[in-house]
Design brief:
Length: about 250
């Protein structure tokens, strides 16, 4: 009897250790890659455990979560997708806005295309470009913002036939970095990253010509303690300072 009780206790302890060792998995919008890497370093330095990070498009993540993908926290590039998860019963609440993103145009240095916040200059740049990279607007908020900007600025007709689309803003940005496109629309945070800035130059576009890119995050139901801790850390003054350094505004 004593042996049986000891065996049962060992089994329960093993099960509990597995549950506590379960890795927290976080879905992070691609525009946040550099900023979030630094936030995660600060998060771990505060005594928190390692988390598994997957970067991609907010739209793809939302579809995956709806289909049962084991993400515990979605750090999105917009508001629409997190709120959709809440309405569909996947998130514990509507979450919180953690950053406001900014849209930029980048040009490959070797393409010798000058950029200026002036419509005539932008017309010349678009006409000279071979391809223009953007993220798929149905999946990535920065792609949606790029199309809103092109249409509002009266550049859509000359740009639309040159557009090539990436599944997320990181892929669209790399099209320009690698020379697959001469121009592209990206997040300011990516345009300022060391890898991108080495190969390209950028200008900010007029933020009045696209809907504000309010980036929201939501905890998925059943999220472990570590996901909740990260959710809270993302709203801390330390995280906000990092986000601001990468060109975001914060609430």
């Amino acid at each position: 009897m004593k042996l049986r009780l000891c065996s049962l206790l060992a089994s329960l302890l093993f099960t509990a250790s597995l549950a506590s060792a379960q890795t927290t998995t976080v879905a992070v919008a691609a525009n946040m890659k550099d900023a979030f890497a630094q936030i995660n370093t600060a998060f771990k330095a505060a005594g928190n455990s390692d988390i598994r990070i997957v970067y991609g498009s907010s739209g793809n993540f939302t579809a995956q979560i709806m289909n049962g993908a084991p993400f515990n926290l979605l750090i999105s590039a917009d508001e629409h997708f997190p709120i959709e998860l809440y309405k569909k019963g996947k998130a514990i609440d509507e979450g919180a806005i953690y950053a406001i993103g900014k849209l930029a145009i980048i040009s490959k240095n070797s393409a010798a295309i000058s950029l200026a916040d002036d419509k005539a200059e932008l017309v010349r740049a678009i006409n000279k470009a071979n391809k223009i990279a953007i993220a798929k607007p149905e999946l990535a908020p920065y792609g949606k913002a790029a199309i809103e900007y092109l249409k509002a600025e009266g550049l859509w007709d000359i740009a639309k036939d040159k557009l090539i689309y990436g599944d997320n803003i990181g892929i669209a940005t790399m099209y320009v970095v690698t020379g697959a496109a001469d121009l592209g629309f990206t997040a300011l945070s990516l345009a300022k990253s060391a890898e991108v800035a080495k190969e390209t130059h950028f200008i900010l576009v007029n933020s009045k010509l696209y809907e504000p890119i309010q980036q929201r995050m939501v905890l998925i139901k059943g999220a472990p303690r570590e996901a909740t801790a990260l959710y809270q850390f993302m709203q801390s003054s330390q995280a906000k300072s990092i986000l601001q350094k990468y060109g975001y505004s914060t609430p």
